[in-house]
Design brief:
Radius of gyration: 38 Å
Structural class: alpha+beta
CATH topology of the largest domain: Translation Initiation Factor IF3
CATH architecture of the largest domain: 2-Layer Sandwich
Strand content: 25-35%
Number of helices: 4
CATH class of the largest domain: Alpha Beta
Strand order of the largest sheet: 3-4-2-5-8
Number of strands: 9
Order of helices and strands: HEEHEEHEHEEEE
Shape: elongated
Largest sheet: 5 strands, antiparallel
Number of domains: 2
CATH superfamily of the largest domain: Protein of unknown function (DUF541), domain 1
Length: 291
């Protein structure tokens, strides 16, 4: 099955703009004092920022499933295959801490049972003919129809599934890891995706861009409204998307890929954030009193 990357998408948050008129007499003190005593005219905006980085880690789920007429037989098949898979992963340099069992299950496969045919009503036997005068009664035989045979119940099968989550810290080995697992007997490959192990640097860059974007939006809104932007009253980070990378993929691996492994594309990881900033509006000077 062909693997591919899915382009990351960006969550855009539109800016909001609000004006609240002043009320009450003017009191001394800074912006904080006035904000606590009277409504402060303000502009509220949401700035957006994002930063891109090259993936340095890959994750996937590798598993094996088998079904048999007994649990023991199905277990023997999956155990042998999973042991071979783990040995193949360790030969590629994966550490035990990066291989974790994600699922192990035993279930019954209940085959579809066709409905049992309903026996047809048997015809009533005809009455034997009356004996002739002076003669013996004629022997009468009735041939009854045979009842339809009921099929035997279908035999049950047991399915055993074993899956491990694998962290690949050398992304250049991602394709070889998948191929090695398939060669060792894996018949399920889930959620091959790429990411960045430590996103702190991306987060800092995205926040910086989001704050700059918020200020630019506020300045444009203030200019369009004939106002002068004041100091920042409050700042808060909008909880939303963090790293955005290639979407997870699923494949059932039954065949081998050419060229040493399946074609996997790492793409880029985008960290996106939004910052809400409230700016005050500078109070316009009062006109001189009329003479």
């Amino acid at each position: 099955m062909r693997f591919g990357s899915v382009l990351a998408f960006v969550l855009l948050v539109p800016a909001s703009f609000g004006l609240i008129g002043c009320g009450g007499p003017h009191h001394g003190g800074g912006w904080g004092a006035r904000a606590s005593q009277e409504a402060v005219r303000h502009i509220t905006v949401v700035g957006h920022g994002e930063a891109q980085g090259k993936p340095d880690i890959a994750r996937t789920s590798l598993g094996v499933e088998a079904s048999a007429s007994t649990v023991e037989e199905a277990m023997n098949q999956t155990n042998a295959r999973m042991k071979a898979i783990l040995d193949a992963l360790k030969k590629l340099g994966l550490e035990e801490k990066d291989i974790q069992t994600a699922n192990f299950s035993i279930s019954i496969e209940r085959p579809f049972e066709s409905p049992v045919p309903v026996p047809m009503a048997m015809p009533m036997p005809e009455a034997p003919p009356a004996p002739a005068k002076g003669g013996k009664a004629a022997a009468a035989t009735t041939a009854g129809a045979a009842a339809p045979a009921v099929p035997p119940p279908p035999s049950l099968k047991y399915r055993v599934s074993n899956t491990v989550e694998v962290t690949i810290r050398d992304v250049s080995k991602a394709s070889r890891v998948v191929q090695a697992a398939v060669d060792a007997g894996a018949n399920n490959v889930w959620n091959v995706n790429f990411g960045i192990d430590d996103t702190k640097a991306l987060e800092a860059t995205a926040r910086e861009k989001a704050v700059a974007d918020a200020k630019a939006r506020a300045e444009v809104l203030a200019k369009l409204s004939g106002l002068e932007l004041g100091p920042v009253i409050s700042v808060s980070e909008v909880i939303g998307r963090g790293p955005i990378g290639p979407m997870p993929m699923m494949a059932t691996a039954e065949a081998k890929w050419g060229g040493g492994g399946p074609p996997l594309s790492m793409g880029e990881v985008t960290y996106s954030t939004s910052i809400e900033v409230i700016f005050g509006i500078k109070k316009a000077p009062e006109p001189p009193p009329a003479e």
